[in-house]
Write a structure and sequence with these properties.
The protein has five helices and no strands. With 180 residues, the chain is mostly helical. The chain has a single domain, classed as Ferritin, core subunit, four-helix bundle (Ferritin). It is elongated and about 55 Å long.
């Protein structure tokens, strides 16, 4: 069973992951507004992934007998100067989330909470992918520079991204044991 301190930290991570989803939904909405439908799709898929991350924490807290406590979500920015600025902000945010995950792993190690440490390893690996996704898009945007036709091609490519539900995510009552 996870300590009260660990459960509180995991609840804080639900908030951080939900804010991430909210941030990417805002970016998706802005991309739609300015006519970058492919980028809007890319950020919408990112929104779905982040909500799944929050739900994985939700599920884990329930599975170890903890109490999920949801907190207010900060308002994300609603406008951006460019697509490059959005991906730079996304990369900065993902690095912040990586730091949070690393802190949770360190806390689990300090508390000798092996179950939580093992659970968190999925997120350690996931964050490598999250950061690399932004780095890859930023590299293309920097190569494109101010070439509108290149941006058009990049936007079309971004629109091909699809969402895949993470393995093991189940609805309450359909597999994961919950405490009363």
């Amino acid at each position: 069973m996870a300590s009260k301190k660990m459960i509180e930290a995991l609840n804080d991570q639900i908030n951080a992951e939900t804010y991430s989803a909210y941030l990417y939904l805002s970016m998706s909405a802005y991309c739609t507004f300015i006519g970058l439908k492919g980028a809007a799709t890319w950020f919408f898929v990112q929104t779905q992934e982040e909500m799944c991350h929050a739900l994985k924490f939700y599920q884990y807290i329930n599975s170890v007998g903890g109490h999920v406590v949801l907190k207010a979500i900060e308002t994300p920015p609603a406008q951006f100067k460019s697509l490059t600025e959005m991906y730079e902000a996304s990369l900065k945010h993902e690095k912040y989330i990586t730091g949070r995950i690393n802190n949770l792993v360190n806390m689990a190690r300090d508390e000798k909470d092996h179950a939580t440490e093992v659970f968190l390893q999925w997120f350690v690996t996931e964050q490598i992918e999250e950061e690399q996704n932004d780095v890859d898009v930023l590299a293309k945007l920097k190569l494109a520079g101010k070439d509108g036709s290149a941006l058009f091609m990049i936007d079309n490519e971004l629109g091909t991204r699809t969402f895949t539900m993470p393995v093991g995510l189940v609805l309450p009552g359909q597999g994961a044991a919950a405490a009363p």
